Amino acid sequence: MIVGGAALLAAAAFTGAAAYVNLVEQPARLHLAPDALLAQWKPSYARATRMQGSLALIAAALGVAAWFASSDGRWLLGAALSFANWPYTLVGVMPTNRTLMAIGPGDATEAVRDLVVRWGRLHAVRTGLGALAAATYLWALA
């Protein structure tokens, strides 16, 4: 099933990008001074939001399409897991994002590090949702 393979590809791309942020970018940025840390986090967040948000929606839409094509509920489960990143981000992660975005250049203190550490833990949930969606799609394809 081509649409199912495409759903898996989108979910895997989302998961890979999210995991890269948690496993590579986040630890590296935490070695920076607060001003530099914030200066790195802001543009990275802006770019990753567009990419990861799009991939989550594409993975969800393709999962729904695969469900329509097959009536296999695993596709719908994978779609729900992919889509869950949106409400989770809006409700769970966005308050921290807004706080970090509101801090001006030169105003960063050590509290910024604590906020970015918190953000990293929140973002790890997004990585987990993506991994669960990809695993569910793989299960449906098997």
Explain the overall architecture:
It is a single chain. This protein is 89% helix and 0% strand. The protein is mainly alpha-helical and 142 residues long. The chain has one domain. The protein is elongated. The model has no long low-confidence stretch (mean pLDDT 96). Keywords: Membrane, Transmembrane, Transmembrane helix. It comes from Methylobacterium nodulans (strain LMG 21967 / CNCM I-2342 / ORS 2060). The chain crosses the membrane at residues 51-69. Pfam families: Anthrone_oxy.
Briefly say what this structure is.
The protein is an all-alpha fold and about 140 residues long. It has helices spanning about 1-30, 35-70, 75-85, 85-100, 110-140. The chain has one domain (about 1-140).
Query: How many H/I helices?
Result: 5
Total strand segments = 0
SSE sequence, one letter per element: HHHHH
Oligomer: single chain
State Rg: 17 Å
Strand content: under 5%
Distance between the termini: 11 Å
State the domain count: 1
Task: Give the biggest sheet.
Answer: none
The helix-and-strand class reads mainly alpha
The low-confidence runs, each spanning 5 or more residues with pLDDT under 50, are none
Shape: elongated
The mean pLDDT is 96
Q: Level of helix content?
A: over 70%
